[in-house]
Amino acid sequence: MNARAPALAIVAGEAQRADRAVPAGFARNCTMGDTITLLTRPWAFLILREAFFGARRYSQFVRRLAIPRATLAATLAALVDEGLLVAESRGEDTTWKNYRLSDKSRDLFPVFLGFMWFGDKWLGDGLPPLALFHKACGSWFSPRIVWAETGEAVDPRGIAVKLASDYWQRPSVIQPRRRRVPGEGEHPRRRPCSVERLLSIVGDRWTFFILREFFHGNTQFQDFLDNLPISSSILAGRLRYLVSAGFIERGDERARSGYALTRKGLDIYGPMILMKHWGDAWLRDGKRPTMQFVDARNRDERTAVLVCSSCGEAPDPRDVAYRAGYDLEDG
Ligand SMILES: [Zn+2]
Predict the structure, then answer these.
(1) 221 and 235 in contact (C-beta within 8 Å)?
(2) 140 Cα–ligand 1 center, Å
(3) pLDDT tens for residues 178-209?
(4) Ligand 1 mean position, distance from CA 65 (Å)
(5) Which of 39, 53, 225, 260 has the maximal Cβ count within 10 Å?
């Protein structure tokens, strides 16, 4: 095993992506996984979601989430500590506080909308999608995830990455990413949410790692086995799951074409990139990102943004109203 991360390979062409093969003893270091870990923490995501929907008071969170009071108090305190919520006094004669979004959590809004878009499109299961109204342009809209530089829809095909020297990292220094959204059995749910369902899928460590390999151009069973510290039986099980869930499909076995992302699998790329951008901006203490997306043809940098389908601007949570097939208001 090498003592140091190997020098970065020079990318000779699109066929030889420097990020395709993980060197022995190393793992990928990108903030996508760190953002997933944060979002799949029990309750944290649900509380932020209610804050995006306008909840500010302790009593609103209690009513909307049916969350145990002690759990709510602890989670709100943790979110304030982490800079994701700002606690504000509600007046001189009360100790009650309002909890509002910070810049850090407001920046998560595109991630939230991206997950909602994916969930409503692919995991809706008959649930009525939440209708979104952009007050800034006066239109109902659906979120679109596009490259800021070109306005084209994001697509992993045609994209390569530029790696920084700290991209490959020892697996031991990478945080475990095992947390799941608590299931229905663990807490009562007031509101159907396809975002939660998506988080429970990509919040599974191996499922996330395998999907990420696809985005680095890997498609063969052996590629996954070489790049991930995973046993062949777990890998086979996760691939079967991803096929049955419609994210990937098997190619021609005799032609050794491996697996391919389906339309649904390709669509998850956008929300995942938005998570990476957020993690780069807020979880790296000002350090540069470990990797950047570039156009495979001309190496121009690419940044994903979520925009309103009507006006093309990035919506602010304060400018979005909702209409749901279920009750969003406080009783
Ligand atoms: Zn708009």
Answers:
(1) yes
(2) 8
(3) 333 333 334 545 566 777 788 888 888 899 99
(4) 29
(5) 39
